[in-house]
Amino acid sequence: MPVLELREITKVFPGVRANDRVSLTLERGEIVALLGENGAGKSTLMNVAYGLLSADGGEILVDGAPVRIRSPRDAIALGIGMVHQHFMLVEPLTVTENIILGHEPTRFGVVDRKGARKRVEELSQQYGLKVEPDAVVRDLSVGMQQRVEILKALYQGARILILDEPTAVLTPQEVRELFRVIRSLVDAGLSVVLITHKLDEVMGAADRVVVMRDGRVVGETTPKETDQIGLARMMVGRDVVLRIDKAEAHPTEVVLRVTDLVVKSQRGLESLKGVSLEVRAGEIVGIAGVDGNGQTELVEAIVGLRRANSGKIALKDRDITRASTRKTIEAGVSHVPEDRHRRGLILEFDVAENLILGDHRRMPFARMGITRPGAISITARKRIEDYDIRTPSEYVLAGALSGGNQQKVVLARELGREPELLVAAQPTRGLDVGAIEFVHRRLIAERDSGTAILLVSMELEEVMYLSDRILVMYGGYVVAEFEAGEVDAERIGYYMTGGKPTESAAEPVVASGGAL
Amino acid sequence: MLLSDFFTPDLFASAIRIATPLALAAIGGAICERSGVVNIALEGIMLVGAFAGVVITLAMEASKVPFLVDNAVWFGVLAAVLAGTALSAIHAFASVTLRMDQIVSGTALNILALGLTGFLLEVIYGHAGATNSVVHQLQPVFDFPAVQGAGFWSDVWYWIDQLVFSYTPIVYMAIIAAIVGQWAMFRTRWGLRLRALGEHPRAADTVGVRIQRGRYMAVLMSGALAGLGGAYLSLEQNSSFSENMTSGRGFIALAANIFGRWTPIGGYLASLLFGFAEALEIKMQGFRDVFQIPTQFFLMLPYVLTVVVLAGFMGRAVGPAEVGVPYEKE
Amino acid sequence: MSVLRTIGVPILSVLLAVGIGSLILLAGGYDPLKAYAALFQGAFGGPMRKPLDAIGDTLVRSTPLMFTGLAVGFGFRANLFNIGAEGQFILGSLGAAWFGLLFAGLPTIASIPLILIGAALFGAAWAFIPALLKARTGAHEVITTMMFSWIALYLTSWIISGPLAESATNNFQTPMLSSAVWLPTLDKIIPGLPALKYAHAGLLVAIAAAIVVALLLRRTTLGYEVRAVGFNPTAAQNGGISIPLTTIWALCISGALAGMAGASEVLGVTHRMYDQVSAGAGYGFTGIAVALLGRKNPAGIIVAALLFGALSAGSGTMQLFASVPDKIVMIIQALIIFFVGAETIVSWYVKRRQRLALERRGAAHAAE
């Protein structure tokens, strides 16, 4: 009897079926890897299991009996524990305090510190998770913090442990440690679900693999029966979509040159470990990769939202490594951000005001600090027409537009500046087919007019279609580079998920540019 | 002038007394903010407590029932605590349930307290300004005989008597509150959960801690403590209520809380510092000819200190991470 | 719909507050109708008070509130809570008194504008350090500006009792300013206007300030950036706007406006500066109520200031004729702030739900 069974789970968000009748079983003492790209539905499924989300359909069975999980409390009571990608730790508290929170051993309301520490040490010994009980969580390395999270689940009596992308923030040694720990947990009788997009981990650690794509389970296998290339094929296989023809690119001079760029996050972890790339005028360079491998930091460093720790970013002959957003805009860099609501638009401003954001200090929109509403209005109307933005007038608030039209506003603004370099991150996220087609057309037109474009997208299809050159990022590095047309999705998927170059790989069928 | 003329025991004892209402409010502030709620209404709550204390005491004294008359002032203290709790309940409701801007709510309550106490003053007593005095203020707890004779040991006893045994009840309550509060915040289950609430409520929610309940409790406790501080002002330090008698102490208490790094003992010590500054200033009145520093600079001191702390000159003063942010369940 | 909300909510809040106020009056044994009638007449005139006196009084009391309301409101636009407008008001008063004494010899046409500018600069300067701290260390402006208010109180107290004292014995006020620097009363400026009690040209300056603020917000790049940072700092940053710099500008302009409030009082009403420790005007705090009620909008703020000015003017008559303690006005003010504040939850909530729905649509597309 499986220790956990998810039957026909369906979860719908407005406009998206995140989980479509997904079924998954977990046997006692098993490690199941839940594999898929961003948007596949893996985290959603596990959030349902842990009670953070409620399913719209299907049922959950623990040890064969149907259960209702309405909140994490219920899940914990049933022995399900989860270690999230973003830790649920209270930073100023100690390791022990974090572990016992919510289930404190007390005597008349006073915390039994000795008893707590003893229990923590016991668990620590038992599972080989070394921690310092009195250390403050804020001071710990990420790997250590993760151990605390795992101990917390164990302390709460978890028999089923769900790990969501646990190795995303770990060093290679810490990854090895983690898998050793997982093995010992399983030997002690726990069952583990490992959510990941990293094929090498799957092959190395899992007993079984369940592959999800677009909200459905598309395959189930074991490491013995397949290999990384086969898994990649399952992960990224796509339906064919009609394509517009595009002309060949004629790149000229180098516009963007990034050299050995290193970017550290707040905790001192390196998100970018030394990236070098070039983008020429008149070409689209696409970066493929699963979210969280450094793409965001790369984009932010280029446009000036984040400080580079070392390395160089040059726009033609101008050094913009340390430039602020204002300076990079002035230098000729435009940015279509990945989150148009948070970063791209001011929803409380009207369309016209949003269209001039970034250029609002310059002529023709302002002279000597005074804005010129006439000029703004004229430009706004022109852009609305050029980009077919569906809005009654330029004075409608941006928050009232549909997603597609909002993105058009962002695009109109950024392209209207006639930049030297356009950095576009997830430009078609959340858009319908018509809007996607429009954006793609625009990007190609922009390329043809001589702009250098750096495209970052989690949609592999999009990257493959639009790009003239494709770079793959994994773990903070650029791990592969291809000319468009020389490579197919599976091979890219292989590198996206940590695959290493092989000498004797059977070369997959080369696709011609465009159609898959 | 000898130093010994200036640094007499009553200077330090005075500092402790002046610090008392500040400390009580600061401790309340620490508890409240640790749970994630900003309470700038401490000023108004203290005022309401001061008022309620006097009103009930006077009422009890006028009742002619022996039990009530004899213990009138204790009823007053109780009333002060309850009134403070009641006012803070409004803030709790606004902040936790309505998820209103906590600073707007606090500001409104301060103005409400000022208006309400002034209004009721006139309604009940028929005139503005101040109430009558209560007949029996709170008296010092201990009453040891005065020291006879001179000499080293009698000097020591004098110091000890002044510094330790000369206080009225609420002064001791403040010290106890600081010690008990500190212990509770860092040693009990309640304290652990409290600290989690203000730092990472979602993490606490995930393990089953009840956010709303914890925050309500914390806000009410801060109200009770600030109310008690108000009782000190009207029933111990003075013997009547006068309009706006808190004079900004609630805001100094906020500063003391920051200075004390959001801990009860820290808040008490910071209040002591501010109290010492004021005691010093009062003492200096009597030494006009010697000191030329204008009194205003002493009065300014607590506020300047707070800004210095906030500017980071004494290390970053960072409060609970999620303080002031209403909690949303997904 | 949004227009309805913009006007409807403040009106509803006022009505609710007045309603609850009536209940409190009833509980205290007063007659609400009589009280409100007296309040109204005290503000606008009637049998209980001469209209010219009443309206003049209302205008005089509204004037500083217009300035402080604009001050706090401007801060709100940048998402800053300038609770220390009181302190900047005091510094502005000080500046006006000092410059007033200094420039007494200049012709009025020149001296009054100079004094007003000087007072504004004093107010801005007083907001500068809290602004800098917020920009650099993130220190919350509520606490820093509040602290600076108290420091202002004692600092000016010392200055008035010392360097600027009227005399060695009379050291709670500055000398009276020469009439050359007094703000003229309205009837002297506007031909045909009858003598309104005390109402002075400061009102016109306040209205002008409101217009300037409105233009600043709508028609300048600074205003654009202030609004951008107030609505969405992340997007503003992406658009090349410097959040620290904008914060400093916004808070300093707010301080300047509060400073002008102080100047208006000194030049128009008191003609000298009193030691505030005993006086304690409270215009800064009422300014918060005005800004909230006026929905952070210059036109709304003018109207809200008139309302609060009327309340204040009427309270004296109410006390006299209906024997109602004037403190009821403060209670009503507090209730108004509360209800307006509570409303923003509704609109915030609605907006948030819209945003969440949109985000989920986008996020789920890429979510796991």
Describe the structure.
The complex is a heterotrimer of chains A (516), B (330) and C (368). Chain A is of the alpha/beta class. Helices cover 32% and strands 26% of the residues of chain A. In chain A, the strands form six sheets. Chain A has a six-stranded mixed sheet with strand order 6-9-10-3-11-12, sandwiched between helices. A six-stranded mixed sheet of chain A has the order 18-21-22-15-23-24, sandwiched between helices. In chain A, α8 (228-236) crosses α17 (489-496) and α14 packs parallel to α15 (433-448). Chain A starts with a strand and ends in a 20-residue tail after the last helix. Mean pLDDT of chain A is 85; it is low at 504-516. By secondary structure, chain B is mostly helical. Helices cover 70% and strands 0% of the residues of chain B. The N and C termini of chain B lie far apart (68 Å). In chain C, α5 (108-137) packs antiparallel against α11. Chain C is built from 15 helices and no strands. Chain C has one domain (31-323): ABC transporter involved in vitamin B12 uptake, BtuC (Orthogonal Bundle). Chain C is 77% helix and 0% strand. Chain C is mainly alpha-helical and 368 residues long. The model of chain C is unreliable at 362-368 (pLDDT under 50). Chains B and C meet through α6, α12 and α14 of B and α5, α6, α13 and α15 of C.
